[in-house]
Write a structure and sequence with these properties.
7 helices; 6-stranded parallel β-sheet; globular; alpha/beta; about 40% helix; single chain; Rossmann fold
Length: about 160
């Protein structure tokens, strides 16, 4: 289910917790979805009962990646994520970092790519919330940025 605002997702998360559900979060741009994304989401979902994906809004991606990104709009990216089996909720957020998203959802576990490490930007908020951080190793050589670079260079792989 696609949820557009943090307040609503926070209320849903509280109701889920009251039912004994373990809430897991992750976040990102998820632009040009690939196998690495799918496997990441599968591993994230395996950490609990409900997976809430924080999706960077178009403007936030332009600020932290590049002016010509994202390739797909936030509405298209949200709908694609929502169609995936591991994903229970998608929340679009405007900030460059997911800190407000995490404070609203209050997950038991947050998943991040291992390249960000245990001292990632989310770590202080996770500690404040009493949530654990689960780092997921990179799956193959999948990266939207690398895929776009290879396409610009005329290479398939």
């Amino acid at each position: 289910m696609i949820i557009k605002d943090l307040e609503t997702m926070g209320q849903i998360a509280e109701e889920l917790r009251q039912k004994g559900k373990r809430i897991v979060t992750c976040n990102g741009a998820f632009d040009i979805l690939h196998l690495g994304h799918v496997r990441f989401l599968q591993e994230a979902k395996a950490q609990g009962d409900v997976l809430v994906v924080g999706l960077n809004a178009d403007d936030s991606i332009r600020r932290y990646k590049a002016e010509d990104r994202p390739i797909n709009s936030q509405d298209a990216r949200a709908e694609v994520l929502d169609a995936l089996r591991p994903v229970d909720y998608v929340v679009v957020f405007e900030e460059e970092t997911p800190l407000a998203f995490l404070r609203a959802v209050k997950p038991e576990v947050h998943c991040n790519g291992e390249e960000y490490g245990k001292d990632c930007v989310e770590a202080p908020v996770l500690k404040e919330l009493g949530a654990s951080l689960h780092l997921i190793g990179r799956i193959g050589d999948y990266s939207t940025t690398d895929m776009l670079r290879r396409l610009r260079e005329g290479r398939k792989t």
